[in-house]
Amino acid sequence: MGQYDNVVAVILGGGAGSRLFPLTGERSKPAVPLGGKYRLIDVPVSNCINSGITQIFVLTQYNSASLNRHISQTYRFSNFSTGFVEILAAEQRKDSPGWFQGTADAVRQIIPHLRSWRVKTLLILSGDHLYRMDYRKFLERHFETNADVTVSVIPAKPEDAEGFGLLKTDANGKITEFREKPKGEALHAMQVDTTAFGLSSVEAKTRPYLASMGIYVFDYERLVDLLETNETAMDFGGEIIPKSIEQLNVQAHLFSGYWEDIGTIRAFYEANLDLASPLPKFNFFDTDAPIYTRSRYLPPSKLHGCDIDNSMVSEGCILSGVYVRNSIIGLRSRIDAGVRIENSIIMGSDFFESIEEIRTDLDNNLPYVGIGRNTQIRRAIVDKNVRIGKNVRLLNEAGIQHFDAEDGSYYIREGIIIVPKGAKISDGTTV
Questions:
Q1: Closest by alpha carbon to 151, among 25, 244, 37, 55?
Q2: Domain annotation for the chain: domains and CATH numbers
Q3: For 281-343, what is the HEC assignment?
Q4: Judging by DSSP bridges, how do beta strands 55-60 and 7-12 pair with one another?
Q5: Contacts with 336 (C-beta within 8 Å, 6 or more apart), sequence order
Q6: pLDDT for 161-220, tens place per residue?
Q7: Model pLDDT, residue 64
């Protein structure tokens, strides 16, 4: 192994996740469910494990209880291995009494926890991206070029570019310029010839920018120096990376696969629904690099008299006389006869209700956990443990783009209806 020893990964759990609200109302961004049975954090952790990196810290500070529970129940390495996945939550100390103020500040605050691991190389990742990467190639590029810092980049289209940190390189891939989310003329000035990175001339015309993916490899000692000498710098993209380019050998590593930053409701919705298509951009069926998650030992799903197409159905579901198109049905979903679900994400439930509990619910005029008879759902995200009654219409036929129900039972973001975790929608409700 040699230089691949002493590589530690740090996965940044993100801020309050306000762009993903209400999915982040009771959980941190990396704990948001994905693809019916996974969570966002499973993607970078699985990429690490598949790349032979098994010393992994996850940094969190907001609503981290469900993330802590998921990680402690999922990632247990052999007693004879040095592997671990450990949560590091923001903590108050005499020398740093505040919360994490940004990506660089988060890493600065956890440096004391890293000292005992003899870290030589630090891999810094994000907890809310959907992609499959072999980090060994990323590290190889870092070591081959004797870099102090290596930034993973992706070719970007003009309409996407202004949302990212953009960079320019010399002929050897050394980064010479970096600008965080430029606009107008400054954006145009960051165009590069991406054929130098292996794109065809046609692809290079449509994707003339190099965008930072927000994931980095740092020489550990160099990073400690950078964080100490730039003690007011809070972010990698806006502050630490530009400083590094001035002083150090900062290299670019091109990633050409599928990558999606799922930090907004629309991006989350579209990335999830694409998973159910016949040829998804991100494939959970890749046996060479599986995505790991918690083993739940659930029974197979039961489907009676259903019409389901272009959809994914997770374990432990009971579906009776249901019509489903282009949707994801999550764990333990109980859906009754006459229900129509189109272009929607149903996240399922954390528990099964017994027949006695369902009878008690109905006796108390409370819908059971699941979806009641003859309900119609279109372009919606239904979070976990939701109780939707009979004859409900979640269709947003008025085409409302943004709305918050007074009782918090549903929200609309970018025209997508979102029913938050544990909410109740009474019989006959129309949205």
A1: 244
A2: 2-275 (3.90.550.10), 302-425 (2.160.10.10)
A3: CCCCCCCCCCCCCCCCCCCCCEEECCEEECCEECCCCEEECCEEECCEECCCCEECCCCEEEC
A4: parallel
A5: 320, 321, 322, 370, 371, 372, 373, 375, 390
A6: 888 889 999 888 899 999 888 888 889 899 988 888 778 888 888 999 999 999 999 999
A7: 72
Task: Using DSSP, state whether 273 is helix, strand or coil.
Answer: helix
Minimal CA–CA distance to 324: which of 340, 304, 335, 338? 340
> Quick check: 311 and 323 in contact, CB under 8 A?
no
The Cα 241–Cα 178 span in angstroms is 8
The alpha-carbon radius of gyration of the chain (Å, integer) is 23
Residue 4 Cα distances to 1, 57, 132, 345, angstroms: 5, 17, 20, 40
Task: Answer for the pair 52, 136: CB distance below 8 angstroms, yes or no.
Answer: yes
Cα distance between residue 132 and residue 357, in whole Å: 41
pLDDT band at 1 (very low <50, low <70, confident <90, very high): very low
The answer for residues whose C-beta is within 8 angstroms of residue 283's C-beta and 6 or more apart is: none
Find, among 98, 80, 108, the residue nearest to 10 by Cα.
108
Q: Are 361 and 367 in contact (CB under 8 A)?
A: yes
- Cα–Cα dist 316/296, whole Å: 10
CB atoms within 10 A of CB 235: 17
Residues 6+ apart with CB under 8 A from 213: 126, 129, 131, 151, 152, 153, 154, 255, 259
